[in-house]
Amino acid sequence: MPARRLFLIRHARTASNVAQTLGAGHDDPLDPLGERQAQAVAAHLAALNLPAPRVYASPYRRARQTAQAIADALGVPVTVLVGVQEFHTGSWVGRPYSHLQTHHHEWLHEDGTLGFPGGESLQGVARRFQAALEGVLEEEGTPLVVSHGGALSSVLPFLLGTDLAEAWQTSRYQHGNTAVTELVWEPDGWVAVRVADGGHLEGML
């Protein structure tokens, strides 16, 4: 039976997250707090006793490190999943996160789609993310996919049937580091059990 429950998790903290800048290198590692966050989300997910868990990670180092902590806690391997990686940010490399909210006037591609100038569109990222999920969801068990904030904010409107532009403008699906989104499949599509839940980090600086 195909998977009917899906967990989407943002990676743990890195130095570029602290600096609040876009376009960190693919090998940006977790910082010391990020390593603790990864252990915390791993313990949280292990306590759920999920049936036949399968852990997937974006190819980027910060996602792979977070996924490895989860996989170790669950006693399963990590599978690298191409397609769920973060945006290619084009000419916005090094710009502050705040520009995502304040510079929407720069976000219109020539074809009318929204996204990073010289980089990927929101729709493009959502499409590749959904395509990557197709094979994952065909298998039995419970998939847990470790990805990135921008990629998750792009794909969730498509999975949940909400407006992409409105979701970005309101930060509706913004995920903190190691925040967990849990979806279940119903006859009419995916339904959110929780979105961007960071309760496992309570009390952590």
From TrEMBL:
<dbReference type="InterPro" id="IPR029033">
    <property type="entry name" value="His_PPase_superfam"/>
</dbReference>
<dbReference type="InterPro" id="IPR050275">
    <property type="entry name" value="PGM_Phosphatase"/>
</dbReference>
<protein>
    <submittedName>
        <fullName>Phosphoserine phosphatase 2</fullName>
    </submittedName>
</protein>
<dbReference type="InterPro" id="IPR013078">
    <property type="entry name" value="His_Pase_superF_clade-1"/>
</dbReference>
<dbReference type="Pfam" id="PF00300">
    <property type="entry name" value="His_Phos_1"/>
</dbReference>
